[in-house]
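Researcher: We're teaching a course module on how sequence relates to structure. For the next exercise, students receive a sequence and then see the predicted structure as tokens, so they can try to spot secondary structure elements on their own. Here is the exercise chain.
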Amino acid sequence: MSFRWFKPYLPRGLYGRTTLILLLPVVTLLLVVSVVFIQRHFEGVTRQMTQTMTREIRLVLDTGDGSIAERLGIDVQTVPEADLPKGDTRLWYDFSGIVVARELHAAFPGVLRVALADDDKAALYFRRDEGLLRVVVDRRHLSARQPHQLLVNMMVFGALMTVVSFLYLRNQLRPITRLAQAAEAFGRGRHVPYRPAGATEVRAAGRAFVDMRARIERQIEQRTLMLSGVSHDLRTPLTRLRLGLAMLDEDEAAPMLRDVDDMQRLVDGFLDFARGAQEDEAEPVDPLALVARVVDDLQRAKVPVALIAAEGEGTIALRPDGIRRAVENLVTNAVRYGTRAEVSVVLSEHSLRIRVEDDGPGIPPESREEALRPFARLEPARNQNRGTGVGLGLSIVVDVARAHGGSLRMGESERLAGLCADIVIAR
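Model: And here is the predicted structure for the students to work with:
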């Protein structure tokens, strides 16, 4: 049997689901016990007490002896017709009164009304030769005194034990919540101190997370050291080549100088990729102002780029250098394969979106995943004669987006018909 239709109505959080698991059996048990007890105990006891009282009332009515009625605590009076109620009466919470009225009507077919106006007295109305007769008896002789006390005690102590259980359960769930927060922070590029605690299973999961985080950090550090070392080592021969070419004739050295400049850009690309997005800490930043400064700097460098939209206000925790590098890489790719680039920023209540569009050939949908990999060069999609590179631009953007807990999404630009690249970061 499938219960998928029921899933949208269930709590999504761990606290909510655990509370539901805790409360559902308790509430169900209370309801079942209450219904069974009311039906079998209260109803049975009330029926027995009422039957006993009916025999005493019948004895008083048959004998008409006032002394017997006084000893039994039964008050028999003749009252005017105006005192006859319009129907049986009882208090709204008097569930045992239903059984009392039913048993009295069954025992005395001639009874006109059964009035249970309060918890102390019960009145029965009969029509006799001498007129309207009212028989008043003590309610304690018909049903148990304050039968609702059992239900009240069940509810009070059930709620008390539920609160105690919830507090204990919250302490057990706190280590899981801390583990989730540490994992989420690590996914956003932040190192939150975490120490495994809680039950044995939670401690095991916490130790596994700590070990995994340490391995990932070591791999990132090793990658950074390796690429940084290689790139730095290449700078020395490049400098020697540049000095040697400066001694040659300008026309003869120009092609080789262009090759040296291309090699220098490759080295810078390796260094950017090695630094990634982990070199600075996140801080509250106005993303609209940050992107505007990046666009202004690119415009001063004669890059054909324009900021066409900036919506929203506020700050968000960002790594300014990483965001700057990501936007510059997207704009550089855009103008390399197209003629112009347009940038827009939207800061909403839930997310930040930085969009870069160009009028180039774009990237086919089936090649976009491959384009995000390091060292990927898509010859059919992007004209590599328009510039040089080693396929690290989009990889750096992906690293920056993931370090902020976001992602890089690519599509087709509706405005310029080229590539549309979105950096989306949740707030």
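Model: If you want an answer key for the exercise: The longest strand covers residues 121-128. The two ends are 39 Å apart (CA to CA).
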